[in-house]
Every structure is written in structure tokens, then in C-alpha cells.
Design goal:
This protein has about 400 residues and is an alpha/beta fold. It has 15 helices and 18 strands. A hairpin with a 2-residue loop joins β9 and β10. The radius of gyration is 21 Å and the shape is globular. It binds S-adenosylmethionine and iron/sulfur cluster. The site of iron/sulfur cluster has 11 residues, from loops.
Length: about 400
Amino acid sequence: MLSGWPSMQRSLLQTPPLSLYVHMPWCVRKCPYCDFNSYTLRETLPETQYVAALERDMESQSADVGGRPIVSIFFGGGTPSLFPPEAIGRVLEAARHHFDLAADCEITLEANPGTVERGRFTGYREVGVNRVSLGAQSFDAAQLEKLGRIHSAGETTRAAEELHAAGLSNFNLDLMYGLPGQDVAGAVRDVQQALALSPAHLSHYQLTLEPGTQFAAKPPALPEDDTASEMLSACYAEIAADFTQYEISAYARAGRQCRHNLNYWSFGDYLGVGAGAHGKITFADRGEIVRTTQQREPRRYQAGSPAAIARTRVAAADLPFEFMMNALRLAEGFETRFFSERTGLEWEAVQPKLERLAARGLLVMEGSMCHPTPLGLRFLNEMLVSLLPESAGLAGKQTLSTGS
Ligand SMILES: C[S@@+](CC[C@H](N)C(=O)[O-])C[C@H]1O[C@@H](n2cnc3c(N)ncnc32)[C@H](O)[C@@H]1O
Ligand code: SF4
């Protein structure tokens, strides 16, 4: 053991809540800003083959989690709403077969407003979906065009109306701001139009240029940083009337926070099934936290064995950063005991560094809680840099087994 490095203690580590992420990798058309593991669908959707691959994946990974209850399921993408309700129903049936779903399990499906024909939401609800996340992005026709979106603002409005009619009022709208050529008034108009559709939740992201995307190769002219900050403040004033900000980009009505994302941000566990899906599983009895990564390319994923999943043990030296990268996103922060229970490390492993951040006004430690200040939320990256393991080489991950 190298002096100065934290060590995980099996006796501290506890088993956290468990979620299930299901990745659906296809989209009608790849958006120029998107770096998710998603692919333009060029032929017929391989619905049957993909669902069968997901079933095999769940069966194979069920051995890792025994009888632990699943508290939330999230169908993300890509565009899960390309799959009809029957296909989503088959995946959920398999999930019920291989896992124990909590009675109040939150089941979210991401939907693109351009892919939801009439009646689809009722179908999703009938097979068990109880929350939807709709990719609105903007309500401005010119912006939707620049973003390469396949839908109009009218289609987003119609989708929201259908969600309410289908009894799925617990829905999120994804919006982006800081769009090419956008001004503050334009960003505020988008928020107002989103709020007029009475969502339960709003995710409000600043458009970023991600490496490897079309926008990174040929960057559009984006607003200056000062303008983007002004947009955020002006939009916040609109959103805060009915919603509470509980994470950097997430706002919810009372009781409508996304439980699935909250579990990620609280350093909970999740199984990741589907092409390129990531998972994190705590083995408290062995004193280990393991990250999993499935085959990224959909055809290879479908053709391969689910056992080819890559497993990587998280090194103790990486845990403070990994925990804080999630927990410090939360406006309410976290209970300090969770740090030890979910990393197996003594609180003292991070306390001195956190005290230095508190002295700079970036976070507050009060009783059993630690939370970022508004300044800290704004400068999260700066805070995290100070929590990085001191040497990436020494803190390197240990690979347990790798598939091809
Ligand atoms: C997987 S997508 C959501 C569902 C669906 N595929 C859609 O786009 O309608 C997740 C969300 O991340 C956001 N997003 C994706 N790329 C982004 C980027 N480069 N900058 C900011 N937000 C981004 C978008 O708001 C998007 O809706
Ligand atoms: S933003 Fe959504 S629809 Fe667009 S490519 Fe990414 S995952 Fe697909």
C-alpha cells in the first residue's frame, strides 16, 4: 500500500440501490451535435434480434445482482421510441423474469417527438412505462433545422398533449440553450414554450461541441460565454417559479425528480444492457466496485456473447473523484455517511480537500450533509480537478476481463 493513498475497507462498503439501464442505439438520423452511441437507421429496425440480445444480456448479468430489487429502469438511446410498445413490453417481461422489480419501480422511456405515431404512448404505458423523456431541444423552426432534428415544434406539442391524455403526465422535456445564433430572448422563449406544455421535469443543457461530431468538425457560431451565462440566469428565473433545480441541468416539480438519475448521482449501482451500455456494480462481500462495458457496435453486440462484457475494478484511489463527480452535481449534496458506505473509504480520505473547497466558498459542510454552493455548482469542474487522483498512472484501473 502506497502511503497517502486511500484504501477501501470491506467493512465500510454497503450495497446501494440498483437501477437498470437499457440502451437502444438507433435514430432516424444522427444529429450533428450528438456523441451518444447512436447510429442512423439505414435498414429495417432489427427489432426481434435486438430484443433477443437484450434478453440474453439480462440473463447473463442477473448472476451479478442476485435478488437485489431494481428501483428504476431507463430506456435510453439513441431513440428507444423507434421500438414499438410490444418490443418494449418484451424487454420489460424479460426484466421481470430475470430480476426483482421494486413495486414502485420508475420505468422511463426516451422518445423523439418525430417518432411517436398516434396511440404509441398509451401502448408504452400499458406495457409498464410510467415516465417519458421527450427530446424537444427547441421550439424554434430555424434552430430545429440547424440542429438536424427530424421534428417540428408542433410535433413536440402534440406529443406532450398525447402524454397527458395517455396518463403519462410524469414526463421530462429535454431542452438545449446556447444554440447557434441564439440570443437571450430566444432561449427564454424556448423555456416558456416548454413550460406551457406542463411537463413534470425539465432538463436544460447548454449545447456543447463534442469531439467526433459533425459540429466539432465544422463548428457553428455559438453565443459567447457571457451571453450563455445570461441565458442561463434568465431561463432559471422562468423555470424556478414552479420547478426546483436539484442537479446542474435538472429541474423538477415537487416529488418528480428522476429517481433513475438520482441513483447515478448518489453513486448507486446500475446494470447496463444493450450496445455500448455501461454498468456499475458493488460487491460488498468482496470489497469491490466493478464497472462493466458492453460491445459498442450494435451488430457486434447482437452477434456476440453477452459474456464478452468488459469488467474493470475501480481502484480505491479513483473512488473519491468518481463519487464527487456525481454527488457534487446535486444541489442538496449528499449525506457524508454515503461517501463511506458507497466507496468503502474513510471520510478522512476526502475531508481535508473538501475543507479547502469550503474555505473557497465552493461547498458547505453542515452537520451530516455536504453540498455545493451555487458558485460551486457553476464551477464544478474546477472543484473536481482538485479531487483527481494525484497520479493517473498509480491510480490506474485494474482490468479483470475484457471481451472483444
Ligand atoms: C439520448 S438524447 C435524448 C433522446 C432522443 N434521442 C432525442 O434526441 O430526442 C439525450 C439528450 O442529451 C442532450 N444532448 C445531446 N447532445 C448534446 C450536446 N452536444 N450538448 C448538449 N446537450 C446534448 C439532448 O438534449 C438530448 O435530448
Ligand atoms: S440527440 Fe437523440 S436523436 Fe439525435 S442522434 Fe443523439 S440520440 Fe439520436
